[in-house]
Each structure stands twice: as structure tokens, then as C-alpha cells.
Amino acid sequence: MQFSESWLRQFVNPAIDSKALGHAMTMAGLEVEEQRSVAPPFSKVVVAEIISAEQHPDADRLRVCRVNAGPGFENLQIVCGAPNANYFSRAASRCRSLTSMSGERRPWF
Fold first, then answer.
1. pLDDT bracket for residue 62 (50, 70, 90)
2. What are the residue ranges spanned by the domains of the chain?
């Protein structure tokens, strides 16, 4: 049987790391054959809430969205290719840097 560690930790969440949790399960009589990551580590990804979504004026398949991506990033404009990007939807968002209203570029995080 395969299941994610996050699913398991919803029911039981001891204060030990992943490797120790696998070992504890094996010692309890549950055979753990393999532990692996399903995705490579990533950072600078947040869940952003769409405040508004409008059709892009120059492209049929793009939408111009205003999003709230957390404190300090409440009104960002993002061009999105998802046809289901709608008002009050949430989506994963990643930015490399931002340009402030004064023209100053700064890292997002």
C-alpha cells in the first residue's frame, strides 16, 4: 500500500522526522519498503486568491488576474493562461521578483 506522509500525519503526528517515522513503523511491525519524495523540493510558491479576472485585451487565451498573495502582496497583477481562473478562486503562484510602483525591483521573498 502506498500513502503520503502528510496523510499519515493527519492521524498521528509524532515530533520525529520522516526517516525516524519510517523506522518506528517498521519496529511496530509495519514493513516500510521505501520512502521517497514525490516532487523535488521547491520554494517561493504561495497560494494566491484571485481578486478579479478579466479577458486579456490582446490575446484570446489569456486572462489578466489581480491576486492577493499574502501580506505586502495584496494586489498583484498576473497574466494567466488558465481558462478556469475566476473571481475568488485560489491557485499556486510563484514570482521571481516584483517591480514596485516606483520602478524598484526587489525579490519576492
1. very high
2. 1-40, 45-92
Q: How far apart are CA 67 and CA 73, in angstroms?
A: 8
H-state helical runs in the chain: 5-11, 18-27
> How far is the CA of 55 from the CAs of 10, 62, 70, 91, in angstroms?
40, 6, 24, 17
**Amino acid identity of 105?**
R
Kindly report the CA angle at 83 between 82 and 87, in degrees rounded to 5? 90
Phi, psi of 7 (to 5 degrees): -65, -45
45-92 CATH, one of 3.30.365.10, 3.50.50.60, 2.40.50.140, 3.30.420.40: 2.40.50.140
Does the pLDDT of residue 94 top 60, yes or no?
yes
